[in-house]
Amino acid sequence: PSAWSGVNERTFLAVKPDGCQRRLVGEIIRRFERKGFRLVAMKLMQASETLLKDHYIALRDRPFYNRLKDLYMGSGPVVAMVWQGLDVVKTARLMLGETNPVDSLPGTIRGDFGVDVSRNVIHGSDSRESAQREISLWFRPDEIVCWQDHAERWIY
Ligand code: RTP
């Protein structure tokens, strides 16, 4: 098992430009904190063309690729984060909702805050493998903070 399994599992989340513009950053962080996950890295940044190309490499042949990369994800700041905890990859995807907000239940982030598939507020890694790939794309190792989380003895 990798060093990032069990309670040390990690995922990459990013509040997209619409989420930042709509002042949803605090609300989104709050949901993951209350759930019991541990924030281990975070930065507000303008994603570069190179970074977005790498991040969305699997979608490069999709009809919405240029719109997604240039007109959406590259259009303003994003808040990139790494969260840690038991089954955080799968659980975060559940908390996000479906890609298209119309399929997302109320109570999920996209179900509560989005209506349009191309403005769906947040990104979350879809597997442990993508999480590892995306974390290393968006963060240098020294940007990830190892800290003693005293709440975790009540969470696990
Ligand atoms: P994400 O990677 O952002 O968490 O999204 P996802 O896995 O739920 O969805 P994916 O199919 O990987 O699509 C990535 C992002 O592209 C935008 N999108 N636009 N028809 C469209 O205009 C369309 N379809 C997808 C969304 O922002 C989606 O999250």
Detailed description of the structure:
This protein has 156 residues and is of the alpha+beta class. The protein is built from 8 helices and 4 strands; from the N terminus they run βααβααβααβαα. It has helices at 17-21, 25-35, 49-55, 65-73, 88-96, 109-113, 128-138, 152-155; strands at residues 10-15, 38-45, 78-84, 122-124. Strands 2-3-1-4 form a 4-stranded antiparallel beta sheet. The model has no long low-confidence stretch (mean pLDDT 97). It binds ribavirin triphosphate (RTP).
**Approximate helicity band:** 25-40%
* Strand percentage: 15-25%
Counting DSSP H or I runs of 4 or more residues, the number of helices is: 8
The end-to-end distance, rounded to whole angstroms, is: 20 Å
Major beta sheet summary: 4 strands, antiparallel
The coarse silhouette is globular
Arithmetic mean of pLDDT: 97
- Following the backbone from N to C, one meets helices and strands in this order, namely EHHEHHEHHEHH
Keywords: Kinase, Signal, Transferase
Binding site for ATP: 16, 64, 93, 99, 110, 120
InterPro entries: NDK-like_dom (IPR034907), NDK-like_dom_sf (IPR036850), Nucleoside_diP_kinase (IPR001564)
Domain Nucleoside diphosphate kinase-like: 8-146
